[in-house]
Amino acid sequence: MSLKGFLQAQKRWYIFAPECFLVLLLAWHYWGGGSTAPKYTTATVHRGDLTSAVQATGTINALTTVPVGSYVSGTVQYIFADFNTRVKSGQVLAQLDPAIYEAQVTQARGNLENAEANLVTLAANVQVDQANLVKAQANATYEQATAKRSQDLFTAGVISTDSNDLTQSTLGQAQAEVQSAAAALDQAKATLAQAHAQVTSMQGGLKGAETSLKYTTIISPIDGIVVARNIDVGQSVAAALQAPNVFTVAQDLTRMLVYAATDESDTGNIKVGAQVTFAVDAFPTEQFHGRVSTVRLNPTTIQNVVTYNTVIDFSNPDEKLLPGETAYVTIPTGHASNSIQIPNPALTFKPTTPKPQLQELYQQYKISREASTTHLGGWQVVWKLGPDKTSLIPVAVQCGITDYNNTQLIQGDLHEGDVLVVAQQTTTAAAAGGQRPPGFGGGPGGPPGR
Question: Model pTM?
Fold first, then answer.
């Protein structure tokens, strides 16, 4: 560089030196020499209406959903209903091949007829045995009279001993025949009773076969709409272990239910009869209304999160909403009119003051242990700015319901328009790391870096 160029560069440096120095001074003040006093973000206490609510996700279901099963096995022969088919109670939905069951009915009916014929034969045998008994009894009576006369003649010495013994023996045989005929009659009656039981059994077998044949025709048990069909023509239905679900019929889609999974911490505030609003993805711009009918006492635990089904019933006159849709439910749990409202961030704010000084502040302003530590009874601590705008003053407040943005004030020294601290930020040289402002990289005593 020539001597003239060097002199011109030095001249330019002396001209811009004051401006560079001023920039350096401002940067040092901002990053290193500024105040270390904390800065606070605040929010104002205001008055208004407040409504607390529980947010939950649920599923829309029909008021009554009936799974229609097949109680017998067979091949699907005909199908008379499909998805979205409106059906009446007793209407035929499908027909299984009845051939096997018709054969079973024929066989059972034949067995019954055979048993009934056998019953007639046995009843006739009983009558024959009864006649034989009467005959034997008459013969025994005659032989008894003959034996008496023979005994009298023997006593008078008219007949011999042998003749009298023969007459007495004949009487004994006649009496034995009476006993034998009575036993035969009892046996015939027992056989007849057994035949009656067999007829009853055969009647049951026939009824069972007819019932199985009847079940090959699958009918709707209720009025409704078919929401599921799980069979096709030609498909084999096996009902060996349990009745397979072949159709699902939903009853009366003009009245439906929402099963909303609500957290265990919210169930205590949900009241039966509360008016509910919900939305669905199918109609994102519309809001639907319902009513809490019950909170089911059947908890569901998933990854240690316990939820309960809150059942909400609602009217669906146009059948716009369908079973299975996801509902985003809002359940109101409380309302406060014209109440003092505390911004929720103020309830979670806690200054970075050391613990001993914090305890001194609590004692100085008579903050109870419930407010500062346990939070029993809804007591908490909020912080006001002191008169110097740098110190903090704790205030004990008892809180009520919340809408997750603001919380109702029940008790405490707060008024509308009071300013509360919600966050703290401190700007220090240490926080900046003592670094120079960006863009100033020149060495000491030299010109600014470019």
Answer: 0.63
Instruction: Extract the tokens encoding 284.
Output: 């994102």
Each residue of 153-165: pLDDT tens digit? 888 888 888 888 8
**Which pair of tokens denotes residue 86?**
């409106």
- Quick one: DSSP state of residue 309? E
- Taken as a whole, the chain contains a residue count of 450
Between the alpha carbon of residue 265 and those of residues 25, 269, 307, 331, the distances in Å are 57, 8, 9, 14
- Please name which of 425, 423, 427 lies closest in space to residue 42, comparing C-alpha atoms: 423
Helix-helix angle 161-215:99-156, to 10 degrees = 170
Fold type of domain 99-215: Helix Hairpins (1.10.287)
Spatial neighbors of 217 by CB under 8 A, at least 6 apart, are 92, 94, 95, 96, 98
CA proximity to 246, closest of 30, 111, 68, 60: 68
Q: What is the average per-residue pLDDT within 369-378? A: 90
Alpha-carbon gap, residue 126 to 122, rounded angstroms = 6
Name the nearest CA neighbour of 101 among 210, 204, 201. Answer: 210
Domain residue limits, the chain? 1-36+428-450, 39-50+339-427, 99-215
Tell which wins on pLDDT, 27 or 206. Answer: 206
DSSP 217: E
What values do phi and psi take at 255, rounded to 5?
-130, 125
- Assign a CATH topology to domain 39-50+339-427: 2.40.420
Summarised one tens digit per residue, pLDDT across range 80-115 is: 999 999 999 999 999 999 999 999 999 999 999 999
* Spatial strand order in the sheet of 217-219: 217-219, 92-96, 74-79, 236-237
**CA angle 55–278–61, rounded 5-degree value:** 105
Mean pLDDT, the chain, integer: 86
Q: Contact 76/94 with Cβ under 8 angstroms? A: yes
Three-class DSSP category at 350: coil
Longest pairwise C-alpha distance within the chain: 195
Give the C-alpha separation, 281 to 295, whole Å: 24
